[in-house]
UniProtKB/TrEMBL annotation, chain A:
<dbReference type="InterPro" id="IPR023875">
    <property type="entry name" value="DNA_repair_put"/>
</dbReference>
<feature type="domain" description="DUF4130">
    <location>
        <begin position="83"/>
        <end position="251"/>
    </location>
</feature>
<dbReference type="InterPro" id="IPR025404">
    <property type="entry name" value="DUF4130"/>
</dbReference>
<dbReference type="Pfam" id="PF13566">
    <property type="entry name" value="DUF4130"/>
</dbReference>
<protein>
    <submittedName>
        <fullName>TIGR03915 family putative DNA repair protein</fullName>
    </submittedName>
</protein>
From TrEMBL, chain B:
<dbReference type="GO" id="GO:0046872">
    <property type="term" value="F:metal ion binding"/>
</dbReference>
<dbReference type="InterPro" id="IPR010994">
    <property type="entry name" value="RuvA_2-like"/>
</dbReference>
<protein>
    <submittedName>
        <fullName>DNA modification/repair radical SAM protein</fullName>
    </submittedName>
</protein>
<dbReference type="GO" id="GO:0003824">
    <property type="term" value="F:catalytic activity"/>
</dbReference>
<dbReference type="InterPro" id="IPR051675">
    <property type="entry name" value="Endo/Exo/Phosphatase_dom_1"/>
</dbReference>
<keyword id="KW-0408">Iron</keyword>
<dbReference type="GO" id="GO:0051536">
    <property type="term" value="F:iron-sulfur cluster binding"/>
</dbReference>
<dbReference type="InterPro" id="IPR007197">
    <property type="entry name" value="rSAM"/>
</dbReference>
<dbReference type="InterPro" id="IPR023874">
    <property type="entry name" value="DNA_rSAM_put"/>
</dbReference>
Amino acid sequence: MVHFVYDGSFEGLLTAVFDVYEDKAQRAQLFSVKNYQPDAFAERRDVLTDSVKANRVWKGLFRKLSPQGLLNVYSVYLSERDDRETLLLAFFRRVFAESVSIEDDFSSPLIVQISQISRQIHREKHRFEAFVRFIHLKGDVYFASIEPDFNILPLIGPHFTERYADQRWIIYDTRRQYGLYYDLKQVQEVYFEEVPDSSVLDLSSDQIEEGEELMQKLWQVYFQSVNIVERKNMKLHRKHLPIRYWKYLIEKQI
Amino acid sequence: MSEKILKKLQILADSAKYDVSCSSSGSKRKNTQRGLGNTNGMGICHSFTEDGRCVSLLKILLTNHCIYDCAYCVSRRSNDVQRVAFTVEEVVSLTMHFYRRNYIEGLFLSSGIFKNSDYTMERLVRIAKTLRTEHKFNGYIHLKTIPGASDELVREAGLYADRLSVNVELPTEQSLVKLAPEKNTADIVKPMSFIRHTIEENRQEIQLYKHAPAFVPAGQSTQMIIGASPESDWQIMQQADSLYKNFHLKRVYYSAYVPVQQDQRLPDLHSLPPVQRENRLYQTDWLLRFYGFSVNEIFNPSAPNLETDVDPKLAWALRNLHLFPVDINRADYEMILRIPGLGVKSAKKIVAGRKFHHLTLDHLRQFGVALNRARYFLICIGWNGYRRDWNATEIKRQIIAGNAQSTQLSLF
Ligand code: SF4
């Protein structure tokens, strides 16, 4: 057994796949360095992330998979599951071994599992396109903290860039401690030394732009006014709006 | 903006909340000239109220002043409530501020009628126009047309709005006469068919000139109040079906009537809104639009109302046991779609997956099929279906008992 250990990046993962094929390693396992525990019975091979190799694997996948299939692959990577490398390697082996497209083979448990993970990630992505709440900060930047279950920031970036093209914004993942910053031209990753970890409503009044408090108040009033008391159904409410997301939802801070 | 606007928002959101259509889907509006916003075709629910409904749009009335006196409406002239009105600028500003904070997908604006129809409609149009032209706003805009507004204003509204709606309010003309005596069917039918024709003309225009401005790209919709008048579910769905066919509506919304005041023409003030019935009507609506059913398959003179204990698809299957069980490895897609407990997505997966492998119950479980219902109506490798000596009553009993204690399921 050979253990291929890569740096944890998506490019690194694809490079590792390249190396597995180059070495013709039949009994190979992939590990992100963060999760790796040395094993006396396996040979360790360190993978040097290489964009040329990664690109070749990606191109190979590109030829074999639909856009949805490619998205599924990236989603499994973003899921941060412990078995993501194992799932993906098994999937790649099938993709490259067979001449017909196998991504719709829902009689295979592996493919069903991958499409389920992808659906989960997609749901989380969709949720955060909805649940991000911007706060207008001094200096004319709109700021939001999020705490998603999966690492969906790379997936939601394009949506916000397109929608909020004329305002500067930051979306910060407090769990993974990085964010996206859009400066009216492009998006880049940002890291804060001091992480705004608690509810963003704790921001002090000299940090927020004038009028922000009134807007939050108006939104809360609106949220309460549209509720139909006669139809109250908290179970349904929590199903759509699970409690773990409430922390950053302004309308739930009353 | 100040405290005063809080009060207005409270009143004008509260009186708009019974209008159920909150959909923000069906329009693809790109963010042009680096302005603000887009609509992405799917629509997003930004939040959910405590009654479990989606909050997608800033749904408000421009005013709750009204010269009409419709029995089922909080804003009716004879109701003793505080009256307020937003200015055009206030609505524009609220929409922009909420949108920038990612609270909403856009605006759903409706209004009571002050002075007259055109006077009110003109203001609604002005709000949409200001958002689009002065603020380069590309989010979603849904305007409710005011009954009796002129064609010219409706046409202009449609150039700025993604969707227009004309509410039929009640399922039949008799009920409309009784409960909304100042409205007449012509006021409703005329704008609906005007919008339908303008949409068709516009589609042709766009084919000729790519850059012709789009007229209500997300189409038109309507709403019916359920339970304020005595119609059966059959009558309601017949009306809905003919609205879909005659006016090419995108959606018909069904809204369980919530009593707002005592009136001998209406259900008692303390009666509960028929939420369950509303839900069954939506299920039926889906069967018509996505599952290939016709109204007269679902209803008949001996069953003019939907059953409450089972969903309409299951009820239909129980009445048509001679068509079952369906062999999922062979049957047409259309027939697979008619198996209770199974949705469009899983039907597609079945048709895709069976090319690779004969499917078993395990596969179906993984596709998310509700087997507690479906297994009585299908056969596949290793599963021969229900016992032939069971009749519809017995199957129904089993399913309802199974729902009650789902642990029993593992026996099968
Ligand atoms: S016209 Fe509209 S706002 Fe006025 S009373 Fe009738 S339903 Fe209510």
